[in-house]
């Protein structure tokens, strides 16, 4: 990772001539700020990105919106992942929620009703996969009344706005009518993001987000690998200059 250094060093050459060496690039440890597009939150534990969408949509429209960004409605594989979600300060508008202290999002679970006696008995499943390997509590909070012929409700995660409640991990699981409109939480795999905030496909060359526009890497499993850095000569005939943060070997001369 090249770092600009315009200090000059002097050595004596043959015949007493002064030779000037310009140390232009000094090797530094590579540090990348990458893995998620702008607006997404990265969690290292699952190598995933998460984003809340405010536009109220029914469950099926929310599913399609997540798919269009190469993701799906969020499901959780461990308590640590859920705690990460609950601790985030999502950029949300208060008007999208019924109560200012509570926030509810569609997530990737459905509650399948198996018995309609005195109470609605059933079980949680991962939507579309039909898998019951979930760690949600067996009894949800039921939202809007459901029609008699409906046997599937859609999952909502409720978290809290106040920091003290949020950081204590307080939350609830709702089984809601799937045609109600709600904000929703999408999840996608981490990805390579270039210095101009473009998403990079697997196997392509790109310059990662960071401080070095002269770095070229290959995208592999959402990580920049096999990186090569170009070295830039300082601009000729210019004593003071500024490097372009987004373009390799491009300078602006600051001399009067």
UniProtKB/TrEMBL annotation:
GO terms for cellular component: membrane. Gene3D superfamilies: Mannose-Binding Protein A, subunit A. Residues 45-187 form the C-type lectin domain. It comes from the Eukaryota. SUPFAM superfamilies: C-type lectin-like (SSF56436). InterPro entries: C-type_lectin-like (IPR001304), C-type_lectin-like/link_sf (IPR016186), CTDL_fold (IPR016187), IDD (IPR042378), VWF_dom (IPR001007). PROSITE patterns: C_TYPE_LECTIN_2 (PS50041). This is IDD protein.
């Amino acid at each position: 990772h090249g770092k600009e250094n315009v200090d000059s060093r002097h050595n004596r050459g043959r015949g007493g001539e002064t030779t000037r060496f310009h140390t232009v690039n000094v090797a530094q440890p590579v540090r990348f700020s990458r893995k998620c597009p702008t607006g997404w939150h990265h969690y290292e534990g699952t190598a995933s990105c998460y984003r809340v969408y405010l536009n109220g949509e029914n469950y099926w429209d929310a599913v399609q919106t997540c798919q269009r960004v190469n993701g799906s409605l969020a499901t959780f594989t461990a308590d640590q992942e859920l705690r990460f979600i609950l601790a985030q300060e999502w950029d949300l508008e208060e008007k999208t929620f019924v109560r200012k202290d509570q926030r509810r999002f569609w997530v990737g679970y459905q509650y399948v009703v198996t018995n309609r006696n005195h109470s609605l008995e059933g079980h949680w499943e991962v939507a579309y996969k039909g898998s019951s390997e979930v760690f949600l509590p067996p009894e949800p909070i039921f939202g809007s009344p459901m029609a008699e012929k409906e046997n599937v409700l859609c999952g909502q995660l409720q978290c809290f706005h106040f920091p003290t409640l949020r950081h204590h991990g307080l939350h609830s699981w709702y089984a809601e009518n799937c045609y109600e409109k709600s904000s929703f939480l999408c999840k996608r795999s981490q990805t390579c993001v270039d210095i101009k905030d473009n998403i990079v496909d697997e196997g392509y060359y790109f310059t990662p987000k960071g401080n070095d526009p002269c770095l070229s890497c290959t995208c592999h499993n959402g990580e920049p690998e096999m990186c090569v850095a170009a070295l830039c000569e300082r601009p000729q005939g210019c004593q003071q200059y500024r490097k372009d943060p987004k373009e390799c070997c491009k300078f602006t001369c600051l001399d009067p």
